[in-house]
Amino acid sequence: MSSESVPNDYKPLTSDNCVKKRIIREGNGPIPSPLSVVTENTALVHYVSRVSQKDQKENPKPEKADIIETTRGKYGMPITASIGTGQLIKGFDLIIKSMRVGELCEAIVSPEYAYGEVGSPSYIPPTCQLEFEVELLKFSESSISRKLLKLTKLKAQGNDHYKNQDYKEALSFYEKALKIIEDERADQQLSTNDEEVFDQTFRDMEVALGSNIAACFLAQQNYKDAEKYCRKVLSKDPDNIKVIYRIGQAYLGMNEFEKGLDAITKGLQIAPTETSLKALQKSIISAQSRYQSKEKAIYSRMFSST
Questions:
Q1: Is the pTM of this model over 0.70?
Q2: Residue 264 sits in a domain of what CATH number?
Q3: What stretches of residues are TPR repeats (predicted)?
């Protein structure tokens, strides 16, 4: 099956149209969570992989050589594959992630998501398009994936309360989610290398939760705690413009104008055209000027009365 003759019922799984799929039999289970990119998720699958008909014509092989691998032979058994770990070629990984348990599908994978320009010596030609038939029998998400899904739900609940200006309730959901991550880190007793993997897995969620917690404290005019959480986030993501803006707000609220201006200056070095930072910079300068004028007036009255 050449890429030029792909039937209309094939749907793209990637924005560049390099992985396409059509469903032969609908499944009845849930689609694996988008969070299943995390390591240690497993899938039980039957599959057949072939060199495409187009590439077979250009690179003739012995009879039945178009079949690369199959679990459908006389003594074939389904395989258990680790998803999101790099064990599978990228295209096969994406196919499985798009399926429901019980689903049977056919898919076409371009070389970019298969074996690339090199191919694989002896059985896969260079720049080769592959065809797959895949049946997903079972999918098991890791405990980390389940935790990430729970964190996502807690964060969404917090967001709903924040939108309703119920900042105290929003804060409780964000803090609960953040504690799950902190407890997970403590329970794992991680080595240095494992700590790096853990941080890669949870970093984006930690950053988002910390930023949202800071926003709640700002809304409650608790500038000290807002500044504390902003600093925590910036230790992990120093170029986060939203959090730089929020720490600037916190410093403004505490009348720590120089710290606020320093933070905004660093932010503008990262994003020179960011209008929110420029506006906050003006606000801090104006507030600093008013504050200094008041202090000057107070000192002037003190000395004039002596």
A1: no
A2: 1.25.40.10
A3: 151-184, 241-274
